[in-house]
Design goal:
45% of the residues lie in helices and 19% in strands. With 398 residues, the protein is an alpha/beta fold. It has a seven-stranded mixed beta sheet, sandwiched between helices. Helix 6 packs parallel to helix 8. 46% of the residues are buried.
């Protein structure tokens, strides 16, 4: 009997310890799948690893939206609003902000006004999203339109080709980036070319869109010259573009050492390298130099998409715990420093086409690393105000 009582006491005490270890609140994060956005997915995985899954008493619930999110909006909305059914849920992160995010945030706001709503890399109208989200953090595509031209010029390019398709050009931020790129290139004495390409979500699919790039790069180099810099904002087009540029000539700047580079150059990472961005960068750099790409190809040293998902989760946690302010740029950039040691970041608040500034929409960009040369220190560049002028893009057609 005494033994049974001791066992019962132990179980009660153990249960108490387990309950005490339960996370005091939950954070839900909805991301791409591995096939559609591996860096984003892996960043969320790292967040789970760091703070624990709610199934195991931790902080994080990680779900993925459908690969064909453009047509399965109802599924995405159900996933987002489903997070709010958890009484301990205190923040919901949707990264990237695919179609359905805005309406889902409205519904969550009605159900649970206590939940923080965060997103980034939005696919919907920026002002509509900013009206319902507490915080948006995205790449500064407007700054990139200027800075990538400056990087290309420093590397020796005299022609800049921007490759895209109508669906992407319907997004305000990408359309404005294209227009800023055109103005920056022309004012820098470079020839600007807008090149239409197949949409990976069209009938040709991702394989068809990639094949188009593979086939066209040699013709583009022959037509426009070896000093052409190529820029394709679509992730799916990165791999074939990198492969051809490194092999044949031209210039390119990638957005992540893991986005396109491994497949393009036949690189595999072991378990000790995954998530270790300095090691990843060094391995990719060695292969690029071996293939003759020194000084011609560049990349962001840390994946924006991997780190921004982490940053949104980290910042949300700090805000809930009262150690950070929701709209403090310094606090947000401090979270970036945690995950990207040694890399420099700069930021600005979003200004819409009517020149209205949104304090809850932060645009960030990271310095550029040139393989074989090092950082270009582009975060030190002062971007002329006119490159943020919405009027740049008005009336332009391609």
């Amino acid at each position: 009997m005494k033994k049974i009582l001791l066992i019962m006491l132990f179980l009660i005490l153990f249960s108490g310890i387990a309950l005490a270890a339960e996370a005091p609140f939950h954070i839900g994060i909805l991301t791409d799948t591995v096939s559609q956005g591996e860096d984003i997915y892996r960043g969320a995985e790292q967040l789970v690893e760091e703070y624990g899954s709610i199934e195991d008493g931790g902080y994080i619930s990680h779900l993925t939206f459908p690969d064909n999110f453009a047509t399965e909006i109802e599924t995405t909305m159900s996933q987002i609003t489903g997070f709010a059914d958890d009484p301990k849920m205190k923040a919901i992160i949707v990264f990237g902000g695919v179609p359905g995010t805005t309406e889902s945030f409205r519904k969550v706001r009605e159900m649970r006004p206590d939940i923080l709503l965060l997103t980034g890399e939005i696919h919907e109208d920026p002002m509509m999203v900013a009206d319902v989200a507490d915080l948006i953090v995205s790449q500064n595509t407007l700054a990139k339109g200027y800075l990538r031209v400056q990087a290309a010029k420093k590397l020796g390019a005299d022609t800049y080709m921007f490759i895209s398709f109508p669906r992407h050009m319907s997004w305000e931020m990408l359309a404005r980036q294209r227009d800023i790129t055109r103005v920056a290139a022309e004012e820098s004495g470079m020839k600007f070319i807008f090149q239409s390409s197949p949409d990976p979500l069209s009938d040709v699919g991702l394989a068809g869109a990639q094949q188009y790039i593979l086939e066209q790069v040699p013709a583009w180099l022959e037509k426009y010259g070896m000093n052409t810099c190529f820029d394709a904002p679509n992730f799916g087009q990165a791999e074939p573009l990198i492969r051809q540029v490194v092999k044949l000539g031209g210039y390119i700047e990638g957005i992540s050492p893991t986005l396109g580079w491994p497949g393009a150059l036949g690189i595999e990472f072991d378990d000790s390298e995954k998530g270790d961005w300095p090691k990843i960068l060094k391995k990719v750099e060695a292969k690029v130099l071996e293939e003759g790409g020194e000084g011609r190809v560049a990349v962001a040293a840390f994946s924006h998409f991997y780190t921004t998902g982490l940053v949104l989760g980290e910042h949300a946690k700090r805000v809930i715990e009262g150690t950070s302010e929701l709209l403090s740029t310094d606090d947000i950039l401090d979270a970036y420093k945690k995950y990207t040691p040694g890399a420099e970041w700069a930021s600005t608040e979003y200004i819409d086409a009517n020149e209205i500034k949104r304090k809850n929409y932060l645009l960030v960009y990271q310095d550029t690393y040139v393989f074989g040369k090092g950082f270009l220190h582009l975060t030190d560049e002062v971007i002329p105000e006119k490159y943020y002028d919405a009027a740049i893009g008005k009336g332009l057609t391609y």
